[in-house]
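S1.2 Input.
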Amino acid sequence: MALLAATAALKLVYVFALTDYRSYLFSDFAGYWYRALGRLGGSELDTTQWAVWPPLTHILLSDYLRAVDLLGFSRWRLEATLVANVAMSTASTAVVYGIAKQTLKRSSWALGVAALYAFTFPLVYFNAFVMSEHFATLCMLAAAWFALRSRDAMLLSTAGALLGLATALRPGFGLFGIAFVVYIAWADRFARVALGRAAAFSLGFALIVGAAAVEAHRISQGRVVGLGANGGITFYLSQCQTRKVITRYEGRDYEFVEPALADRPENGSVRFDRPIHDQAFFAGLGWQCMRDQMDLLAGASKRFRNLFFGPLLPSVPSALGFAALLPVFRWFFLLCTLALPLAFVVRRSCDVQIDALALQVGILAVAAIGLYIFPAEHRFLYPLTGPLYISCAAVLLAATCERRVALLAITWAAALGALFAGSIALGAITAPPVDVTIYRFALPLSGTQPGDLPMTTFGVRKLSYETPERLYPLRPDGTEDYAVFRTCLNVRKPGTFELLVLSDASATLSIDGAILVSQRDPHMDRPFGRRTQLAVGRHAYTIRVDRPFGLKATWRYPASPADYWRPGFGLHYIGESGAALEFLPAARCNGGDD
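S1.3 Output.
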């Protein structure tokens, strides 16, 4: 109880005293809020009530706000909602303790896991936002607690209903049902009785999901089949790596931005004159991208990077602790995830309950599948925090009292350390493929002059500057120097390549000395470039920028008419080699060593 009181007090103080929570109604969070108010005002059949995401979150929020009004607190609707966030977050801490105690069988370890969960900074920070995750996470955790508590059919049906409610709020949670059913069968050692218990769980799940789907169908007047209208677009954005989709329906534009790509305008935007609920159309595009994916390992690597180090929605850098603590927890989650394979060697010893551990690991495993199919953004890690912490604690507990697990843990850590050190060493001894030279004009003329003086030259791995970073100091008289980026393209597969540049300064792209494209008024949010045929062999690639600022430059192959609706698919930064071409130091295109 002391832990729950402390975490509740901390979260209340953080939200109401240390954040500007009233300004946090933006993006999805404003959408939930104003749709709830619209439903409260009698607009439940308006297109906006069902068009963007599963409507259950704002349906439940509108019912809660109605109760707040009846109690006479209508002036403090937002405050009452955030208090509910804190209550749900605190309840989640209690449930995590219950799950940890059933998994670890040691109260002190369970309390440690719950305390870590209670004071995980992002979980504190999220309480200042109107989000679907608060209630969905609580329901998912409660479902796990009920499933572990007893194999009574009624409790399993309750667990199924809770997971169904979580799924109706966050459809991606539906995949967790696989882990629950497997756990129920595993706990009964796949005996015949397991079939009835799995059926009880599935019935509770289906009833709630079905009811939510019926309501979505009703308020959309038959347009939506399922839990929401955005499933197809979500799948398309994820598989085709498109930053933004704009659809027009009934005279209104709807924008869908992939949060993991929010800071990557190079991934492009597409406009469709299709109904937003035409999920079959968008899912078809997504399946085509999945089939056309040529480098599965590179795709998985990008998703992994986005999951741990990609943009966070919601991001308010001015919030207390955001800049200092969020990076710490990003790395901590990565370390916990890297320890998960050791869970498979934990035996029924040291008070670790293997069946309960299997459920936690199973939830994480099916989540990984879902995050490969659907968007993998950093926020999606946090509903998994409870199972992740409990699984890592089980590994640590087993390592402290079983020599075999300890030796395996040391070996695994050494292997990961060697891999990490090796990658750093390889990067240190490998020459960066892109040369950057800062020039000073010899004469007050535009253009590159033979007598222009190179001020400095350095190498970079790839052209992916997130902002127009200044690469060389401004001269005392206020005049600018200019930058030239050079590399050598070693084309392995001939064909049509798409070459794009994003720059805040006027830039010119040349291939083999011939100007391919020039832009006098560019912007980092607007890519420019063109497609060109490249033959097998080496080609000199040069970008001249009128000011010494960083930029982004991309390539992809093969360029095709389908690229209109998947502008981010197969995208690489200049400097990132692929199957069609590799990058060599610029000197290799000028008669340098082979």
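S1.4 Remarks. The chain is about 50% helix and 15% strand.
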